[in-house]
Write a sequence for this structure.
C-alpha cells in the first residue's frame, strides 16, 4: 500500500505492522504526532496508548509492558531522553523480554525545542543501546520495523533517533497494513536475575551487554538496509559518509554541483559497522563526513582510518558547521573547498538566508496575556522564573518576563534557590502540563526548605504548545477515555502550601488583588490562573457548529 505520510505517521505504521501492543510517551515537538496518531487509532487496532506524566514514567511503563511480554514503543523529544535516563541505562543492562523501540526526536537549529541544541546520539555511547537514524519517511517505516526485529533478536531496547526534518518531512511511503494478531495481555514471570540490577550481578550484566553490542555490530555488517552505498566511484579522489537527513542534502548538493562521488549512508549510528567503513574508505584520497551537530562519526572514522587508510584526508567539522541544521548550500560550500569547483547559492537558499527572523507571539486572545500584563503592572521589579510551554514567549519583547528558563519544572526549582540566596521576591510561571510533569517535586522542596516564591500555574485546560494534548488535569486520557481530573490546587495544598488561590485571569480586579496579597507573604504561594486556551475554545466551538 502507498500513501503520503509524515515521518511520524510512518513510524506509527511501522510499529503497527510490527505488532506493537503498548505505546507510551510525552508530547514534545517534533515527535508529538506519534502519540496523537496512536490516540486516534489505538483502540480499533487493539493497542493501549497513553500520554504519561513525563518521559521517565513513560519509559518505565513500557519497561513494565516489555517485562510482561508485550511489544512496546516509547516516544519523546530530545530532552525527554534526559528525563528518562535514570531508567534508560539500567534497561540496557537488563535488556528487554519483549521488543521495545524508543523514538527520540532531536531539533537541530532549535525550531521548537529552544533550551539547547541537543544531540541525543551521545546517549548511544553512554547506554550501549543500538541507535538507528532514518533519513526520510520511508526509512522511518522501515527502520521502525527493523528496530523491533533487532530488539527481538538481541533482547535489547533500540533507539530510533530522528530530527525535525525527518519527523515532519512528507513523501510517498510503501507500507503494509497490520495482518497478524498481537498480544493484548501480558504475563509477568518472576526472574530477579534478569530484571534486578544489583551487585554483583550488575557487573555480569555489563559484560553481557558489551558482548551483545559486538553481536549487533556483526549483524549490521551483513545488512544491506542499514548501510547503503550510492553514487559512482569514478576516481579514487573523494568519497562521502553521511547519516540521517544529511544524506538527502548531500545527494542534492552533488546533483546541483554535477559532481559524482560514492556516498556511504550509515543507518546504524551505534554500534558502527567498522568493517564496512574500512572497506569504503580504502583506496580513497579524501572523504567528507556529513553529519549534523557534533562530529561523532568523524571521530570514529578517523580512528578506523589509522589502520584502513592512514594517508586519507578526512574533512568534516573543519568545513561544516557544528551549530544549526545542515542544508544543501552548506554542503556545496564544503565540496567546493575540497574539489575546487565553484558553485552559486540558489535563489531559494539566498532568499532564506536574507529573511529576517521575527519574535514569536502569543496567540490572539491567549489567557496568559492577562497574567503577564498583571505581573508587569504590579511587580515590575520582581525576579521572573520561566519554564517550558507557550508562556516561554513571555521572555521575548514586549513582555520580557522570563529572567531564566531551563527545563520542564526548573523554573520553580531555580526560583527557590534565588529566593533563599537573595531574599528577593521571585514569581515563577508554569503551565498545567509542566506542573504535572516536573513541577510537584520543586514545589515540595520550596515548602520543605521554607522559601517564598509565588508560583503562578497557567492552567489553559490543555497541553497547548505541542498541539493540544490531554494531561492529568483534563479528565480525559490519550485514548479519549474518562479519567480522574486532578486538581492543581488540591495537589498544592497536599504539598503543604497554605496560600492557594484559583481564579479566572480575565477577572483583572481579582487577579491584581491576589498577586498583591501574596507578594506580602513570607512563604510559598500558588495562584492557579484557570482559563481555556483561545485556540482550543475556537476548535470546540467549531466542533459544535
Amino acid at each position: 500500500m502507498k500513501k503520503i505520510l509524515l515521518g511520524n505517521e510512518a513510524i506509527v505504521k511501522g510499529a503497527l505492522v510490527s505488532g506493537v501492543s503498548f505505546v507510551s510517551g510525552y508530547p514534545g515537538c517534533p515527535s508529538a504526532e506519534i502519540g496523537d496518531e496512536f490516540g486516534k487509532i489505538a483502540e480499533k487496532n487493539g493497542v493501549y496508548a497513553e500520554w504519561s506524566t513525563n518521559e521517565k514514567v513513560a519509559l518505565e511503563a513500557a519497561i513494565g509492558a516489555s517485562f510482561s511480554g508485550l511489544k512496546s514503543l516509547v516516544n519523546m523529544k530530545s530532552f525527554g531522553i534526559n528525563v528518562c535516563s535514570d531508567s534508560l541505562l539500567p534497561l540496557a543492562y537488563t535488556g528487554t523480554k519483549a521488543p521495545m523501540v524508543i523514538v527520540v526526536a532531536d531539533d537541530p537549529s532549535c525550531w521548537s525545542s529552544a533550551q539547547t541544541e541537543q544531540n541525543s546520539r551521545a546517549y548511544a555511547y553512554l547506554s550501549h543501546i543500538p541507535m538507528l537514524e532514518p533519513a526520510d519517511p520511508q526509512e522511518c517505516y522501515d527502520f521502525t520495523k527493523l528496530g523491533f526485529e533487532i530488539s527481538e533478536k538481541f533482547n535489547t531496547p533500540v533507539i530510533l533517533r530522528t530530527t525535525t526534518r525527518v519527523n515532519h518531512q512528507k513523501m510517498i511511503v510503501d507500507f503494509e497494513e497490520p495482518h497478524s494478531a498481537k498480544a493484548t495481555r501480558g504475563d509477568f514471570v518472576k526472574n530477579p536475575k534478569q530484571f534486578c540490577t544489583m551487585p554483583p550481578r550488575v557487573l555480569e550484566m555489563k559484560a553481557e551487554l558489551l558482548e551483545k553490542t559486538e553481536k549487533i555490530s556483526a549483524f549490521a555488517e551483513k545488512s544491506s538496509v542499514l548501510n547503503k552505498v550510492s553514487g559512482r566511484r569514478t576516481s579514487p579522489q573523494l568519497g562521502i559518509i553521511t547519516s540521517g537527513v544529511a544524506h538527502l542534502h548531500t545527494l542534492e548538493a552533488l546533483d546541483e554541483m554535477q559532481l559524482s562521488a560514492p556516498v556511504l549512508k550509515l543507518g546504524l549510528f551505534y554500534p558502527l559497522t567498522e568493517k564496512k567503513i574500512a572497506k569504503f574508505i580504502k583506496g580513497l584520497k579524501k572523504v567528507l563526513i556529513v553529519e549534523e551537530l557534533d562530529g561523532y562519526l568523524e571521530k570514529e572514522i578517523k580512528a578506523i582510518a589509522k589502520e584502513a587508510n592512514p594517508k586519507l584526508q578526512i574533512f568534516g567539522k573543519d568545513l561544516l558547521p557544528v551549530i544549526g541544521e545542515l542544508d544543501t548550500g552548506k554542503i556545496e560550500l564544503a565540496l567546493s573547498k575540497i574539489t575546487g569547483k565553484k558553485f552559486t547559492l540558489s535563489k531559494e537558499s539566498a532568499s532564506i538566508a536574507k529573511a529576517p527572523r521575527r519574535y514569536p507571539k502569543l496567540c490572539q486572545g491567549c489567557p496568559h496575556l492577562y497574567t503577564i500584563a498583571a505581573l508587569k503592572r504590579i511587580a515590575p521589579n520582581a525576579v521572573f522564573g520561566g519554564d517550558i510551554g507557550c508562556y516561554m514567549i513571555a521572555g521575548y519583547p514586549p513582555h520580557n518576563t522570563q529572567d531564566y528558563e531551563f527545563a520542564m519544572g526548573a523554573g520553580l526549582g531555580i526560583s527557590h534557590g534565588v529566593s533563599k540566596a537573595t531574599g528577593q521576591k521571585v514569581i515563577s510561571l508554569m503551565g498545567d502540563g509542566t506542573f504535572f510533569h516536573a513541577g510537584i517535586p520543586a514545589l515540595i522542596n520550596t515548602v520543605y526548605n521554607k522559601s517564598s516564591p509565588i508560583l503562578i500555574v497557567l492552567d489553559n485546560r490543555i497541553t497547548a504548545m505541542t498541539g493540544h494534548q490531554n494531561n492529568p488535569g483534563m479528565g480525559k486520557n490519550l485514548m479519549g477515555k474518562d479519567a480522574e481530573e486532578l486538581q492543581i490546587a488540591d495537589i498544592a495544598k497536599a504539598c503543604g502550601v497554605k496560600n492557594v488561590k484559583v481564579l479566572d485571569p480575565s477577572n483583572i480586579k481579582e487577579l491584581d488583588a491576589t498577586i498583591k496579597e501574596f507578594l506580602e507573604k513570607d512563604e510559598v504561594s500558588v495562584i492557579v490562573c484557570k482559563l481555556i486556551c483561545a485556540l482550543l475554545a475556537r476548535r470546540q466551538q467549531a466542533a459544535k457548529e
Summary: The chain has a mean pLDDT of 93. DSSP finds 20 helices and 19 strands in the chain. The chain has three domains: 2-221, 227-346, 368-544. The first strand starts at residue 2 and ends at 6.
